Amino acid sequence: MTILTTTDPHLTRLMIPSSLSRLRLFIVAIAALSLGSTTARAQARQPGAAPRDTTTRATRDTLRSAVRDSLRPSTRDFLSLVEAPPVVTHHTMRLRGTSVGYTATTGMLPIRNDTTGVVEGGIFFVAYNREAVGDQSARPLTFVFNGGPGSSTVWLHMGAFGPKKVRLNPDGTNPPPPYNYEDNQSTLLDQTDLVFLDPVGTGFSRAARPELGPKFWGLDEDIRAVGEFVRLYLTRFDRWGSPKFLAGESYGTTRAAHLSGYLTDRGIALNGVVLISTVLNFGASAMDAGNDLGFINFLPSYAATAWYHKKLPADLQKLTVDQVTSQAERWAETDYARALMRGARLTDAERRSTAEQLARFTGTTPSFAEQNDLRITLGRFDQELLRDRHVTAGRLDSRFTSYSTDQGAERGQFDPSDASIRNAFTPVLSEYVRRELGYRNEDVYYILGGGIGRWRYPQNNGYANVVPSLERAFAKNPEMKLYVAEGYYDMATPYFAVEYTLAHMSVDPRIRAGIMTERFEAGHMVYIDSPSMTKLREGLRKFIDGALPQAQRAQR
Fold this sequence. Notes:
Layout: H1 9-45, H2 54-71, H3 75-83, E1 87-95, E2 98-112, E3 119-130, E4 141-145, H4 154-161, E5 164-166, E6 181-183, E7 193-198, E8 206-207, H5 219-236, E9 244-250, H6 251-265, E10 272-278, H7 293-308, H8 314-317, H9 321-342, H10 348-362, H11 366-371, H12 378-385, E11 391-393, E12 401-403, H13 416-435, H14 467-476, E13 481-487, H15 495-503, H16 509-514, E14 516-520, H17 530-547, H18 550-553
Parallel strand pairs: 4-7, 4-9, 9-10, 10-13, 13-14
Antiparallel strand pairs: 1-2, 2-3, 3-7, 3-8, 5-6, 11-12
């Protein structure tokens, strides 16, 4: 039964009959299935009994489907959640020695069919508005989301930019459970109001009916839904006059870049876009047969990881990570790229030389490089680098490791960095939303995966590429600014692939000169590392200020 806390008592009463109906359906269906099984067994015991006919089988399949549906929140329940007024709460926090008051608004907005107006889904959000700021409608507003696809926005919400954050160790690892949260001294709330939204299929956001899910699960489908959320939020909360920003992480950067063009086409011009751990052109980091670009662009991240774990030769190990990766970058885009392009035309001497250099920058061996045809995939690198220590390196953050239960395996069984982070964020978000924000919803909060089906990537060249949308946004709105954060130890969206993508964008040279990029000694989630978060916050302070008209800087 879904329990909803709301200021409208009629809404709570409305939901009880629906929940009871689903309970009755469940009981009846179970009874019918049991009766069907008993009847079938009785028939089987009768001499000469005919085989059970297909009508009985079809009936049983229908009843099984009814049981599954009875366990899902009904459409009526879901629409009640979508149509309910948001829960509004008031809070204060200590921000760098000052008391800051803010309002939290938690709820859902409907996503309707463009033609019929029927509600087909709902997007859950938590919005924070700073209080006592004068004209609220003119204050900067930032829409924030994570990626996946299939990830909720808990990571940026309670790891980076919200007023509260999960309490972690300074290096981003977990303290012993139970986990808790604290005031976030790096929140963006002193500069901009914030809207954290979960795309359909993540968090509490859902399609109105299961069969409508695919209407939201795709590159373009997702943009239409999130774009409609932005439009509706600006309308309902009177924020059309605010300077507008997007901030995304991982696939959220894909969404943000694509959305920048989509919104600009519809008269919603942005002041700035923030990309953290970026992937805009998937071909730049894909390590597939016939695509050598991914192997080239991963190499500097391999070198950084090997340096961090002290697996490089002595002359490289004594350098800084910046110096090591600079050397790796030069070799990757020259001799390594040339060797991969030559393929079978390489002489034996050229192949041996390339294998030696590849081993030198990856902390592996020449024989391992040759066995992998000079193209070391990420899974094999993570398992091979620290095989002698019986540990596997992480993907989201290659500084994280875990014990390898199968030392001879080709690749690790899970990502150590993902496992560590997920353990802390899941329970903290659940407690925070219910206890502090007063929002009651007993549906599963899909934190990462589980709520979406197959994702649709419509592309012509084999790889998704949203760079044209970003280029179009810049062409139509040359005042828009771009900030890009890159992590040395990010093995999900390697930084050199981002540099490649930015270098191949078709934009005015003045716009290119204004793109702000910063690199961090951290992984995919740069903000869980305390020194990196301090650097990120200062970078974003300059970026946001620089993207605002002069008149609005004094009002933030």
